[in-house]
């Protein structure tokens, strides 16, 4: 589990194609300070399992399912990524409960001088996004300012712009989105009891079984 409070801005230092996956090497001095094989680290919102740690860098394998559902399929050497270690029991929940299972990719649309930032929503996700609710964008826990059927907006403070990838985003850039998991559970439980409704199902991209 994660809370969407980014610990540091990391950098991709190597991308290697391996059978049915991509192996990424990521530089992140903070998250590697106590990392070991098998630990979970969120890389721009995608929960991935540490394969190896050497100095200030770590490697992770990203399987085909995760590449399909996230923007990591387009990652390249030199790209910056948001990094967060898994939340320890007893830590403060500074953001909101996140699994690191990406539901889809949105698109950065625009940001005004006051930090109000708009993103396009992929089809089917708007039903999980509510005004003043939480959403994860590239692993950052954010509060929804407004939402329509095909886009939403958030207000970004200067610290978020300075310390995360969103400060470097350009119109048209893809972003990883994870909606509030509580909304998906509520929908699954309630749908069979609503006349004329059909159940929506789907899994996000993440680590372990990458489902």
By DSSP, the count of extended strands is 12
Number of helices: 3
Rg on CA atoms, Å:
17 Å
Ends: how far apart? 14 Å
Shape: globular
Give a concise summary.
The protein is 10% helix and 38% strand. It has 211 residues and is mainly beta. The longest helix is centred in the C-terminal third of the chain and has 10 residues, at 181-190.
Key descriptive features of the protein:
globular, 211 residues, six-stranded antiparallel barrel, 10% helix, six-stranded antiparallel beta barrel, mainly beta, 3 helices
Molecular structure report:
Its EC number is 2.5.1.9. Lumazine-binding repeats lie at residues 1-96, 97-190. It is an enzyme of class 2 (transferase). Pathway: Cofactor biosynthesis; riboflavin biosynthesis; riboflavin from 2-hydroxy-3-oxobutyl phosphate and 5-amino-6-(D-ribitylamino)uracil: step 2/2. It catalyses: 2 6,7-dimethyl-8-(1-D-ribityl)lumazine + H(+) = 5-amino-6-(D-ribitylamino)uracil + riboflavin. With 211 residues, the protein is mainly beta. The chain contains three helices and twelve strands; from the N terminus they run βββββαββββββαβα. The strands form two sheets. A six-stranded antiparallel beta barrel has the order 1-2-5-4-3-6. It has a six-stranded antiparallel barrel with strand order 7-8-11-10-9-12. Strand 1 and strand 2 form a beta hairpin. The protein is globular.
């Amino acid at each position: 589990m994660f809370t969407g409070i980014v610990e540091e801005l990391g950098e991709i230092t190597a991308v290697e194609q391996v059978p049915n996956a991509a192996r990424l090497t990521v530089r992140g001095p903070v998250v590697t300070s106590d990392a070991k094989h098998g630990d979970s680290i969120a890389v721009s919102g995608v929960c991935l399992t540490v394969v190896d740690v050497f100095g200030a860098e770590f490697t992770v394998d990203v399987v085909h399912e995760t590449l399909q559902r996230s923007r990591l399929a387009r990652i390249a050497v030199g790209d910056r990524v948001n990094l967060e270690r898994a939340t320890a029991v007893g830590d403060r929940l500074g953001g909101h409960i996140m699994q690191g299972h990406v539901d889809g990719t949105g698109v950065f649309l625009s940001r005004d001088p006051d930090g109000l930032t708009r993103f396009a929503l992929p089809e089917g996700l708007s039903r999980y996004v509510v005004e003043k609710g939480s959403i994860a964008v590239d692993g950052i826990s954010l509060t929804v300012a407004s939402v329509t059927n095909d886009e939403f907006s958030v207000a970004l403070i200067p610290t978020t712009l300075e310390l995360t990838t969103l400060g470097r985003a350009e119109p048209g850039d893809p972003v990883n989105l994870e909606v509030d998991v509580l909304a998906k559970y509520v929908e699954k439980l309630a749908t069979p009891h609503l006349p004329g409704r059909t159940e929506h199902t789907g899994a996000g991209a993440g680590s372990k079984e990458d489902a």
